[in-house]
Amino acid sequence: MTAQVDYLAVVFAATSGASGELLGSDEKELVHLVWQLVDVKNKKLGKVNELLIKPDLSNLTEEKGEEDVVEESVEEENGSGADSVSTASSLEAALNLFHLQLTNEVNSAGTGTSVCLCTDGQLHIRQVIHPEAASKNILVPDCFYSFFDLRKEFKKHFPTSDLKALNVHIMAESLSIPVDVPAMWDPSATLDPAAIMPPEIAVQQVQIMANIVLALLSEPFSHTFSNPEKVSEKFETGTCSKMEKVCDNTVIRARGLPWQSSDQDIARFFRGLNIAKGGAALCLNAQGRRNGEALVRFVSEEHRDLALQRHKHHMGNRYIEVYKATGEDFLKIAGGTSNEVAMFLSREDQIIVRMRGLPFTATHEQVLAFFSPGEGLKETCPVSGGKDGILFVRYPDGRPTGDAFVLFACEEHAQCALRKHKEILGRRYIELFKSTAAEVQQVLNRYSSAPLIPVAPAPLVSVLPTVSLLPPPGSVRDCLRLRGLPYTASIEDILTFLGEFTHDIRPHGVHMVLNQQGRPSGDCFIQMTSAERALLASQRLHKHVMSSQRGTNSRYVEVFPCSAEEMGLVLMGGSLSHTYTHTLTRSRSGTGLSPPPCLSPPSYSAYPAPPVLATEAAAALYPPIGQMLLPPRPLPPGHAYYPVSSQLYMNMNMNYSAYYPSPPGSPTTIGFFPSPSSLTSPGGLVRMPGLTYTSNGVKDIINAMQGYQYTPEDALMHAHGPVHAHDPSRTLLTQPKEWVCI
């Protein structure tokens, strides 16, 4: 619509909740709709119409026919100042009545047929009418999909005006329009921003807006109302290239989505706001499943800001959190580079269904047969394009992953296909989910780049850097190690356990250690202000009982003083491992390093993470033979990383420990495990966790190490128990963590 319209319908909406700049932010229902028709050509005003909306009683009565009764009343009974007052029993009836009365009034004028709405700002249409209609599955009349923003039209003649600060008072004052200020409701003067607007004020707002429109149409402005704001009727799917530039001010992150939600469900939640083509991307977790998050890209910053106002609005029974995100975040999820995916998604208006759990031997013919109707069944769900409508997901070497995406021509066929959820193909049941173009690209990117579980190749180096294994002598033991915590223990439980010693903890000095599954391991490290307080705390609290507020179990906790270096040694939790090289010989040169522990599994495997290895160290450890070591996910901003260094702790058991966010004062010592300089010959140390408490000490260890080159006199044991009274070579073990030098 480029030419000037014949009529403008000045509209004002009010809810049962907040008004002004907070209109629609509390999800309250629309209860009041006021409008007045403006004849643009003749510069005349029509009558003021008022529509009152009663609560929806569809769930309280079975008499559906009585719900849509529309009653006419007179101005004297209402007292709001409107020329015509109507009442509707539901939102759907109110919107249809509005459209009917507006059409009849335009047709009765006879000077033109084109009409467009005009509102004070964006909230009335985008944040009130469309979101509520979407949540109630109500079809909105066509007239609500385009409107003029009076503030933007006013700004064309007053460029210095601030859109966010504008209101009808400022615009009327700038145009020298008389306003009955004492009788007006000024949102800026209201102490309570959630105050409900009185009905008579809505009528006065509409009357002033109509006078502002007449003033803009008259000399000296002679304004032309053309190119109205548009509301997208439906979400357009599409592809996004990783080379595309996405503005940071147009992207949000939505959290708490139901796991079965699709991009269309996300578009319905943000109904009224214009999402860019293909701008809804569902996020997957490390296992390739949806994690309840999505990145949404809007057409402008204005729409992004309106989307942020829907923070904690509801999708069904769940509230959705909405936060700012960046264009880089969106491209990592939705960006694609595969030509095969681009060809698969090139067909528009196609419904995508994801198949999961396919037999590795599944073929196109078997998939087509799976969706064909069975004997005696009339339902059909033909795959769009036949074999071309099926995309198998494969690893880079061509092996199938068990996933596939299938195209269907319409929603009816897709719903028919989804009813085959968990039916058998071959010998396996197949899971079916409604999918999106962004999910297709994300899954393909995941399998075509790096594996989900980081697996490093065996190192091919024979020379180890000479770095001391054990903490340097004389280290200050100003830290505490708590062992045997209840698995449900929280930071608050630990602080309660420490009691008076809580005041001696350094800022952010509590470090909880998680196991490979991301669960508490029962260990915790605490940085204290001094070695004296750490020693005193260990003496007083050792083997005292700790209770957890989140569980009924109580356990006694062992408390030991330790140094920052020892804390770093255990936190990074690794050891040298005796591995075979690519040759057939066994020697000390075969002693290698296991991969470093990861901090935690990445939330989105498509996210590239900066390498934790220094460039030189990585080049020395892993020659460029096409094999890569996956780095850990970077911690969120505000949490310090363990510093990058050429020294690494290695874990023979691939223990992917996760840590409580590390403070700036976290341990900084990271090193290999070569043999100490005090040993008789060069070599390395092997950590042997899990030794039994009934072990015969060095004799059992020597038997276990047969076939490896070592000297028995260099066999060391690290234990906290006393030496056996009859055999000094035997030590009473008190913990299953022992060290042997080979």
From TrEMBL:
GO terms for cellular component: nucleus. Keywords: mRNA processing, mRNA splicing, Nucleus, Repeat, RNA-binding. InterPro entries: ESRP, Nucleotide-bd_a/b_plait_sf, RBD_domain_sf, RNaseH_sf, RRM_dom. Its main location: nucleus. One of its GO terms (molecular function) is RNA binding. One of its GO terms (biological process) is mRNA processing. The keyword Nucleus applies. Residues 250-327 form the RRM domain. It is found in: Nucleus. Belongs to the ESRP family. This is RRM domain-containing protein. It comes from Sphaeramia orbicularis (orbiculate cardinalfish). The lineage of its organism: Eukaryota, Metazoa, Chordata, Craniata, Vertebrata.
